[in-house]
Amino acid sequence: MVAETVTIKKLTLADAEELLALSKKTFFYFFAHLNKADDMEAYSTIAFTLQKIQSELNNPNSHFFFAILNDEVIGYLKLNYGPAQTEFQDINAVEIERIYVLAEHHSKKAGHQFIDFTIKEAAIKKLQYIWLGVWEHNQKALAFYKKHGFEVFSSHEFILGSDKQTVC
Hints:
By secondary structure, this protein is an alpha+beta fold. It has one domain: 3-Layer(aba) Sandwich (Aminopeptidase), CATH 3.40.630.30. Helices cover 36% and strands 27% of the residues. It is built from five helices and seven strands. The strands form two sheets. The chain has a five-stranded mixed β-sheet with strand order 1-2-3-4-5, with helices on both faces. A two-stranded antiparallel ribbon has the order 6-7. A hairpin with a 2-residue loop joins strand 2 and strand 3. Helix 1 packs across helix 3. The longest helix has 16 residues.
């Protein structure tokens, strides 16, 4: 299928509520069936608050983008630079912290367009590499990133509620 072109829009604080709703919706859709409800809820009370989203949007080293198709927001991307990165905090790198596309729009290839967008952003900023973390049990995402040339080089723990998970 030919990819439909999405518009990629940088977000501002005014987009916080829409981003919060989309973040929670996509996270629960992709992970609720693979995790305990108590762990999902415990994580949700910390990760999906308006204050947390506003704080992330206000961070000058983090940038959020919506994928928009036919005036509908179908996904989002979060990029972290320098000290906003969750681990390495390398000034010569950008971290893709989140790429989420609504399931009903996966055939539109917005995720691929987000990767292409990130590669262009990294080139403009003359960064040396792009990195990200993926839950070891998210086989679809692992395959997606491998297809785009990403390789596993490390792993770390991620706590979802009371569940210790491995991100690679």
